[in-house]
Design goal:
The protein is built from 2 helices and 17 strands. The structure holds copper (II) ion (CU). InterPro entries: CopC/D, CopC_dom, Cu-Rt/internalin_Ig-like, Ig_E-set.
Length: 257
């Protein structure tokens, strides 16, 4: 049940594309993905033969797209978009000969036959090898230290301090921590949800929308390979407060491999 609520919240966020967090009915919005977002696969053998996304409305094939990109921004799909199962599901085949351990980005864009609106988004999955799985296990532990990472603050006009920490701060698996405090250092209590939204406009990736998990009052955490390629990324932090305005701030970061 908790998972369903998280999915509904995440979906309503994707649907609203940041303008509103109320669920929007209409537009072709993703319902299910295969492989699922943030999946870590043991090897290319466990990868399905195609990437498949089911939407709430019927995609117009000629104006829709699924691209599967490696961390060098090269397409590893067969560029053969087709409708399958029902006319709300589209898929593209994966060229498995091009799969090596690493992070892959699925970038989709869909024109709805039903209401003529365009929606787009991205998500990531990881193909690991033994070495990568060790690294992931180390990095999944927030107490792992030894690198400086990324730390940046933003203070809102109403004196709320938003702190973003990224560890280890590179392409691939990172730990993201957001702290929301008053200027005197006390944690902000009236927080309903915190979302991260990753975009790389130069490479036309994103938005990758993720819901964060609360670790304590005023602190939220998420781990994942959302920074899937090097380059300039925008990380938008969205803080929904109870009985107060949402806080939005975009951090501009630059990642080198
Ligand atoms: Cu629409």
């Amino acid at each position: 049940m908790k998972f369903i609520i998280v999915m509904v919240v995440a979906l309503s966020y994707v649907l609203g594309t940041g303008l509103s967090f109320f669920p929007v009915f209409g537009h072709a919005s993703p319902v299910t993905y295969d492989p699922a977002p943030n999946t870590v696969l043991d090897s290319s053998k466990s990868l399905p033969n195609e990437v498949k996304i089911t939407f709430t409305e019927r995609p117009e094939l000629r104006a829709s797209n699924i691209k599967v990109l490696n961390s060098d921004n090269e397409r590893i799909d067969s560029n053969d978009l087709k409708t399958i199962d029902s006319d709300k599901t589209i898929s593209t085949a994966i060229d498995k000969s091009k799969i090596t351990p690493g992070v892959y980005t699925v970038d989709w864009s869909v024109l709805s036959k039903d209401d003529g609106h365009i929606t787009k988004g991205s998500y990531v999955f990881t193909v690991k090898d033994k070495n990568i799985s060790q690294v992931i296990n180390q990095q999944a532990n927030p107490s792992t230290n030894g690198s400086i990472g990324y730390v940046e603050n933003y203070t809102t006009p109403d004196s709320i301090v938003l702190n973003l920490n990224i560890m280890p701060y590179r392409v691939g698996q990172n730990n993201f921590t957001v702290n929301i405090d008053h200027e005197n250092g006390t944690a902000v209590e009236n927080i309903r949800n915190v979302f991260l939204e990753f975009s790389n406009p130069e490479r036309n990736l994103g938005p990758i929308a993720e819901s964060m998990e609360k670790t304590k009052v005023g602190e939220f955490f998420k781990s994942g390979s959302f920074i899937s390629q090097e380059g300039n990324w925008q990380i938008k932090v969205i803080v929904q407060r109870i009985n107060d305005y949402d806080i939005n701030h975009t951090f501009e970061i630059s990642i080198k491999n």
